[in-house]
Amino acid sequence: MGEVTIVTAFFDIGRGNSSTLKRTNEQYFEYFKFWARMQNHVICYTNPAHVETVRAIRALFGLLERTTVIAIEDISALEPEIYASCIRVSSDKRFRASRLFYRALSNNAAYSYSMFLKHWCLADAQKRMGLCGTVAWLDFGFNHGGKTYPHPEDFDFLWCTDFPQDKIHVFALNNSYLKPLHLILRSLEDSMQGSIVIMDAALCAGLYAEMKQAFGAILSMGQLDDDQAVLCLAYQNNPGLFCVHHTYWHLGLKEHGGAHLRVKPGYGQQTPKWLVNYLRNCLRFTGKKIGFLLRFTKELAQMPVPLNCDEIGEGGHD
Questions:
Q1: pTM
Q2: What percent of the chain has pLDDT over 70?
Q3: d(Cα 23, Cα 40) in Å, to the nearest integer?
């Protein structure tokens, strides 16, 4: 089994001031501290202001020599055309009106752009440091401070895997990543997990190329979403490049090299509490559909009407 090089990133996009899924910088650093005792080489991209914080957290566990922190002054300058497109789409009221979740976090340009940069970081780390062997992306906030694995001491291990090296290994909750893209973008149904991706280092550049093409296609449609939806389209465009593992959030680590990790009792199971939350979400989702129909009707009412019915179809669409 080969040792894994871990790539992660934390970019301050002001999420602490968000009204949707608010998380402060301090919360993210606590999340990172939870799993930062992993003995693998960790490459972390972050803003210059947070370099020493990341280094200090790894130093707590005597792992500073196994840590590389790369400062990025301005993330918008990494892919300026894509960033500009994210701003343009997110500012369009018609885009938000097309989404069932009008205030979804992934409607935010800075958030979805920063999620796209996960795969830029993977490709850059491989090129910059000449990485070889197995490389994995782990979200900086992976495990959300014990939501899946409640015992931080369990992360004190050297992660190794024996994945086939000719595929990019991704993890999905269900088969919804096979749905037509417009349905994925409208409903925001969870499927692909962006929190963990594993591959041979030689595939990092190819993954970024696929993700950049897919994200560009989504933006060209006047749409915007985070890395989960972009992964869905990248898979649909080139399924032979990927191996999809079906599992629940964050369990890919336990199932592929972290068998000793203890999972919170009842995690991912359909308990009575889970059923109550499911029914609540169904009612909430129904309300979102009604809101979507009202917004769509309002948008439709503002569209110009053809001069006469005979003109419809003359363009070859009858």
A1: 0.86
A2: 87
A3: 26
